[in-house]
TrEMBL record:
Its main location: membrane. Belongs to the glycosyl hydrolase 72 family. GO terms for molecular function: 1,3-beta-glucanosyltransferase activity. This is 1,3-beta-glucanosyltransferase. GO terms for biological process: fungal-type cell wall (1->3)-beta-D-glucan biosynthetic process; fungal-type cell wall organization. Its EC number is 2.4.1.-.
Length: 394
């Protein structure tokens, strides 16, 4: 079992691991931490920029198939350092990373982020090793858990990992709600894995959560489901996508927003917005940023992540990559101004008290024709002790 290699000397991390108390992420001095984040990934047309066959750390075998899609891969350090300078300009303090290749080195990139005080949320899945919403029980298998455990092994030693994301956008309609059972089982398994590894080898037990689609967060009891049951099985944090449900939208949107905020107040774990920034009107105004960090929403939600840093075909980018340079788009300056404004609001964020109703064991929502997931725990296809014994024998 490999642990991440932390560079020595001046690049040693300067950030402390975040902890969770009730519904807040906390710094080591007890102050509440609010995320000013951005989604960061290599654009699809540029994912060949890191070629496995020319890398010092990877080869061309299928094992390394996702190395060229890993935005934290040390083999693209020069481009990464270019982007980190722009993160600083935006006052970004956390990245949302969908996909990593645990087989490659991330030490230099993670150390640079730590030096700049920037945290990361890391996705555990790949397009090939993930929960299939249409066949969830069949996709809950050895390969899925081995993949999840390998990402944990690669990143749990970094102090600036804010959390692991076990699933993203799995439940997005009534038919797929049954998949929530598997999502929760994976959360339970990964949490168990980290506890056992920490007992055997020491080190961190990193928070584990899920990221829901907007439909699931607003129209279903998904937040209550993932935070029900024992601490061993429930999520440590809850994230959701939000492009439409804000207090400044039409009356229908405002009603949904008020209902959503009430729902999130009740779940008792930290909440973040994993994607926001509607681009139906261009250029984007990012007025949601002011609302996200305003008093009412900040009392419940611990910040969020603008979608996304680099321009792709869907036109959500803040910069476009041209001949190796990151060219700022108009949205970059707009977001910079909005985040600068809210950063001033967050200077005294440590005075925000955790919700008084946080904590305790919550009941599972009932199974209905609109919510198909049940509360009976699923047996793991790869028990942690069995997996670790196999790894020890190899």
């Amino acid at each position: 079992m490999n642990s991440p290699e932390i560079p020595a000397g001046n690049n040693r991390p300067r950030v402390s691991p975040l902890s969770i108390s009730q519904n807040r992420f906390l710094l080591d001095d007890g102050k509440i931490f609010i995320f000013r984040g951005v989604v960061y990934q290599i654009p699809s047309r540029r994912r060949a920029a890191v070629q496995p066959e020319t890398s010092d750390h990877v080869d061309s075998t299928p094992k390394f198939r996702f190395a060229k899609r890993d935005a934290l891969n040390d083999d693209r350090y020069e481009a990464f350092a270019r982007d980190v300078a722009l993160f600083e300009e935006l006052s970004i303090n956390c990245l949302w990373i969908y996909l990593v290749a645990p087989e490659v080195s991330h030490a230099r990139c993670m150390a640079l982020l730590a030096e700049k005080g920037i945290y990361v949320f890391i996705g555990l899945w790949t397009p090939l090793q993930c929960i299939n919403r249409m066949a969830p029980r069949e996709s809950y298998n050895h390969d899925l858990l081995k993949r999840s455990y390998s990402v944990v092994n690669a990143f749990r030693g970094y102090s600036n990992v804010a959390g692991f994301v076990a699933a993203d956008h799995v439940v997005n309609n009534v038919r797929s709600t049954v998949a929530a059972e598997v999502v929760m089982a994976v959360v339970r398994d990964v949490k168990c894995y980290m506890r056992v590894v920490a007992d055997r080898m020491g080190g961190r037990v990193v928070p584990v959560g899920v990221a829901d689609a907007e439909w699931a967060a607003i129209e279903s009891p998904s937040p209550a489901f993932y935070t029900a049951g024992s601490k061993q099985q429930q999520v440590d944090f809850y994230a959701f996508t939000n492009y439409q449900c804000w207090p400044s939208t039409a009356e229908d949107g405002r009603q949904k927003w008020r209902a959503l905020l009430g729902k999130l107040k009740a779940i008792g774990v930290p909440v973040v917005v994993s994607e926001y920034g509607n681009n139906s009107i261009e250029p984007r105004s990012f007025d949601e940023t002011i609302q996200l960090y305003g008093d009412e929403m900040r009392a419940v939600v611990s910040g969020g992540f603008v979608y996304e840093f680099t321009q792709e075909a869907n036109r959500y980018g803040l910069v476009v990559i041209e001949d190796g340079s990151a060219v700022k788009l108009p949205d970059f300056a707009t977001l910079r101004a909005k985040l600068s404004e809210v950063k001033e609001l967050l200077v005294d964020s440590e005075s925000i008290a955790p919700a008084s109703n946080a904590g305790g064991v919550q009941d599972f929502p009932p199974t209905t024709s609109e919510w198909l997931a049940g509360s009976k725990p699923m047996p793991s296809p790869l028990p942690v002790e069995h997996y670790l014994d196999q790894e020890t024998e190899q």
